[in-house]
Amino acid sequence: MDMKRLIYVGLLLVLLIILVIIFFRKGGEERIKPASSTTFPEQEPLSEEPEETTQITLFFPSEEDTLLHPEVRDIIASSSVGIQAKQVIEELIKGSQNGYISAVPPETKLRELFITEEGVAYVDFSREIQEKHNSGSSAEISTIFSIVNSLTYNFKSVKKVFILIDGGEKQTLGGHIDLSRPFLPQHDLIAN
Amino acid sequence: MSSDAGSIPAASSKISWYQKKILLNQKKRSSIFLWIFPFVFFFLGFSSYPQNQPFLRLSVKDHPSLSRVLIESSIPLSFSIERSGSFLFVKLRADKPFRIQRRPFRSRFIKSLGWASGRDFYTITIRTQHRNFSYDSFTISDPPQLVIDVSPNGGEERREESREGPKRISVETNKEERKVPSASPGRKSIVIDPGHGGLESGAKGKFGALEKDITLDISLRLKNIIEQKLAYNVVLTRDKDVNVSLENRAAEANNNKAYLFISIHANSSYRKEARGSETFFLSLNATDEEARRLAYLENNSAEFEDRIGGDNEDDIKMILWDMAQAAYLKQSSQLAESIQKELNLLLGTINRGIKQAPFKVLTGVACPAVLVEVAFISNPEEERKLLTEAFQNNVAQAIYRGLVNFLRRYSQE
User: Do the interacting molecules here have an ipTM over 0.90?
Assistant: First the structure.
């Protein structure tokens, strides 16, 4: 009889070990996935409840003067600066709701956005930002600083903005302003 | 044997666990497999692990003349490499997600390594320290490895784009004294740069005027005026409708040891009302630290020139040359002011100030340099004006007067 009990104990142990192994292997797989996304913000899980929003400020050029004008808008709140920054750019592409000028061609898509530890936001646009751009120094300056100022104004962690096109570094939008270095914001372009 | 154990129940409670195990083994041999089972599973689990999840191991190692980026994997790699500016983008096909390990590194030629994942591919981004580099890649099949060697230019192997940048070109010509045939040696050169050209037509007007045509017309007029009235050679970066890269325009100025550089453009804005002339000089987008370094350059431009003229082609010089304009910002702003003043007088504009922006064409120019936006081609009224001979002549005259005023001061310094 004692022998039987021993066998039961042994079986139980076996079961336990198998369970432990299954548990660890599953855990291992899950640990792997984030490895490929450590440099990028994670996708926000979709929730059923009404989403919390937060206020951001976009900057658009206007017909009136050569300055950039603020326009306040609500975006979905997120703890990730990366996700919020993406929304800021997407809102900027949608254009102004107050009749200001949209300086990013509306056909443009945001391909990727990531922020480095040093505070440089790399913003990767589809090629339309270049192809549909109305080339010219003033137009290029408007486009670039509407992007740069909108990002740096809303996020303290963004110090500089590097504009990429179609996944790579480009010289200029249309032959004028240098895109091969990151931009600092130009505060003197902002209207009061 | 089996009856032995069963016949002494009293004693059995006193035998140790170890002894019981032996007894067990002796009695029911088959039960041993139950013990092996978990271990088999355990090892199976381990060995099958890497098969499920291929890995990529990224590392960088410095060698005397190159930095080697090593991408190791557990599965064969199919890849393509694309180059853009100071980046190399290595695209790897991946049917399954990779487990990526990146070893920390410090390298002379590689600034950073990053990666991004797409639906069925990964992009490894290699950022080099300098734009002017060449690379070579090869694979080793067992174990699967992709090797990318990055070396700064100056090495024997040069790939496409390696002629990029005014820096190297100019450094070389400085060394061998210029061989560029110019009208009269001994005279100083003023380089005029008609914006755009060839396939790159720049801004377009509503009535079809192209920036590239207007800039060339005005530049040719300005060249004539200067040559008639001043003892300077005038060099144009292009004298017909051709493509010239922005770097080559700066190189043209540096190769000719330009005394002044004037880039002519016609503006375009989203604002329908935008009008008037604007004169720009370079802004550098510098952070505090960079600004300090640049301020140093500005105050020590003699030393800066020595270093460019020197023989040792070291990294520092490359960086300096890349920002050659940094040493001339003060003079450039004065030149801009002088030209803008004349343009304001011509157009009757109430003082429109000079502006600063990071223009690509100005960054590498090693002399006072400005970019004149003559008028707005995006404004129909100004577009029409820009096409008239009278306006083009007036603008050329105004720029010329600004130039003369500046030269009077500058050459006395």
Answer: no
